[in-house]
Amino acid sequence: MFEEPISWWANHGASTPLSQALAFKLLVQLASSSCSSERNWSTYSSIQSIKRNRLTPKRSEDLVFVHCNLRLMSRKKEEGRIQRGADKVLGPM
Fold first, then answer.
1. Is residue 86 predicted with pLDDT exceeding 50?
2. Could you list the residue ranges forming a coiled coil in this record (predicted)?
């Protein structure tokens, strides 16, 4: 018979309360996802293509950073959560 880990710790972990508390904290966390890293690699592959293969790694990294932050700012602006003036470019990098 298989018992879920959180149920097992609830039923059998009372003799080690510190371990039980730690197990609960670890087991109730949301499962991690690879979506953000896959999205990052997708952006990177569109920037660093066969036609643009002469970009330095630093330049490619900077372009991915800018692209991701522009998407984030656009999403926040649509939700009305961006501060006034935060979307204006302050000058060249």
1. yes
2. none
What is the overall mean pLDDT for the chain? 78
Give the pLDDT score at 93.
Answer: 45
CB burial class (10 A; 0-12, 13-18, 19+) of residue 9? Answer: buried
* One-letter amino acid for residue 91 of the chain: G
- Hey, how many other C-beta atoms are within 10 angstroms of the C-beta on 15? 7
- Asked whether the predicted pLDDT for residue 92 surpasses 60, the reply is no
Q: Burial level of 6, CB count in 10 A (0-12/13-18/19+)? A: middle
Burial 20-55 (b: 16+ CB within 10 A, else e): eeebeeeeeeeeeeeeeeeeeeebbeebbeeeeeee
3-state class (DSSP) for residue 54: coil
Length of the chain equals: 93
